[in-house]
Specification:
The protein has about 220 residues and is an alpha/beta fold. About 30% of the residues lie in helices and about 25% in strands. The chain is built from six helices and ten strands.
Length: about 220
């Protein structure tokens, strides 16, 4: 890391406090391993727009050295519930237009160039490989959309055309904002359910949150 650890200021961002409550509790009671780090918790709200707004307000108040976003997610690959992953790149899944049976992205429509910053071939790529490596986690592609995917045809289209592993409503906003502001960032996602599975008896939110917060604290220790 290039940042001086004696003055490192980290923002821990999440859509809801519920997802990172164990970490919040540790920070409040002083049990978290500070190691000279200063941390703030930012609850952004659900969705890309609230997340982008909350991040920019936080950056305007005080520019962080690192932003770590943590949350639960659905997974396109069955059998991974409880697994914590680091998102190396994001794709904006529903920004475009549906014409007939085809969906066209803003890049397909030539509304913007696939390599117009901060995009790289249509992706929002985390360039901070040291942070991704520090997590020690498998790195995957995420997709950001505004509604939870349930339609089988739409899920199949995402898999065939965008090849995501995890789905969230906020990851793309983190990547876009931090790339534009040149702030190092890391997105951690813990799988709570398989994509398309609406039977919540088959979800495991409790384990996903427990594993997420364990990994979050381990990552903070490594910093």
């Amino acid at each position: 890391m290039n940042t001086d650890i004696c003055s490192m200021y980290i923002v821990l961002a999440a859509a809801t406090s519920f997802e990172i409550q164990p970490t919040i509790d540790l920070l409040k009671n002083g049990s978290a391993p500070a190691g000279g780090l200063e941390t703030d918790v930012l609850i952004t709200g659900i969705g890309a727009l609230p997340t982008a707004y909350a991040l920019m307000r936080q950056i305007g108040r005080r520019r962080p050295d690192i932003v770590i976003q943590a949350g639960i997610a659905g997974c396109f690959t069955p059998g991974r519930i409880g697994t914590v992953l680091a998102v190396k790149e994001e794709v904006l899944g529903d920004l475009g237009v549906k014409e007939g049976q085809d969906f066209k992205t803003i890049f397909d429509l030539n509304l913007t160039d696939r390599n117009a910053p901060p995009f790289c071939n249509g992706l929002l790529i985390n360039p901070y490989k040291d942070l991704l490596g520090l997590s020690g986690l498998e790195t995957v592609r995420g997709i950001t959309i505004n509604e939870i995917s349930t339609d089988k045809d739409r899920i199949r289209w995402y898999q065939q055309n965008m090849a995501p592993i995890v789905e969230s409503m906020e990851g793309g906003a983190l990547h876009f904002t931090c790339l534009q502001e040149s702030i190092p960032f890391l997105q951690l996602r813990s799988v709570s359910n398989d994509i398309g599975q609406r039977d919540k008896s088959k979800w495991d939110i409790r384990s996903a949150i427990a594993n997420l917060n364990q990994q979050l604290m381990e990552t903070i220790k490594k910093l």
